[in-house]
Amino acid sequence: MNLNLRNAVIHNVAGNTQDQLENTIVDAIQSGEEKMLPGLGVLFEVIWNNSTDAEKKEMLYALESGLSK
Is the dihedral of CA 40, 46, 55, 16 positive or negative? Predict the structure, then answer.
């Protein structure tokens, strides 16, 4: 079976409102299930690819700060 995870995740959330997207992200994080991590990775990839250099630096700062706690 040839499953393209990226396409499946994007297809499942395409057309969602910001509230629906937020709920999807929050639910995935709060569930703590390992199986949700690839989907969150796909969503992060979409965010990263559609961000400016300044936004990417801000995300990297937030990531670095969060990892140093």
Answer: negative
pLDDT of 20-64, one tens digit each? 999 999 999 999 999 999 999 999 999 999 999 999 999 999 999
Contact present, 43 and 13 (Cβ < 8 Å): yes
Chain centre distance of CA 12:
13
**Full-prediction pTM beyond 0.85?**
yes
For residues 16 and 46, is the Cβ–Cβ distance under 8 A? no
With tokens 């796909």, the residue in question is 42
Q: How far apart are CA 10 and CA 32, in angstroms?
A: 21
